[in-house]
Amino acid sequence: MPPTASSIRRFLTAKARRGVHTAVHRGWEWVQRQGEITPHTHGRRKFAYLGEGACIGFPVGAIYGEPWISIGNHTLVGTHVTISAGFVPGLDLGPDVIVSIGSSCSLGRGTHIVGHQSIEIGDDVFTGPNVYITDQNHSYGDLDTPIGRQWPENNPVVIGDGCWIGTGAIILPGTRLGRNVAVAGGAVVRGEFPDHSVIGGVPAKVLRSHDPESGWDPPLRNHPLISLDELAALSVDGLEGLQLLQDKLREEAG
């Protein structure tokens, strides 16, 4: 039975839709690549420093105050990430860098880093998506003035090398995280926390800590699949290394 006119139309319509779909997605991938900010694009010139191998994904969030923002080598900034220094673009914020992000960091999609005095993020810091970090808070001491109109208070933030900050965590002014601190998703963090600790909650508190002599308290539930040296080696092997890690996790699971 020969095809009918209606079946031919349906076939051609479906084919056209597939073509449009492919064109849209390929076009968007091209736009994303062209919109990235790297040391080899014009946008790099605005920053106090944008290191070799660094990349800010496109679409970007609100990025302004670039002359007071430093981003280290090989740091990857996800899409829709806001990094700002000062209240609005165009202000003179003085001689010093206000937002300093170290080398080999990874900032998850939708993260906000809002600096006014000093936010210092060390090397090898990773965040999940939608993390919020700020060194400024509203004051509320004047009972007769709306809080949003009262003079804000600044307090520097320091995040040590190797920290992991989970999805949706909020890092408030005055926070100082030591080296290799794990922050649970959704935590609201303020205060000082020691090296090699796990913190979480609202407000955040220490959930697990490490002593050089007695180890982890409370103890870890299971042993790592591979040593830290092996993990570091896999991380520089690109996709092949990640596939080996995925295979090890699958093997452990079952």
Automatic annotation (TrEMBL):
One of its GO terms (cellular component) is cytosol. The keyword Acyltransferase applies. CDD domains: LbH_MAT_like. Pfam families: Hexapep, Hexapep_2. Keywords: Acyltransferase, Transferase. It comes from the Bacteria. GO terms for molecular function: O-acyltransferase activity. Belongs to the transferase hexapeptide repeat family. This is Acyltransferase. It comes from Actinomadura barringtoniae.
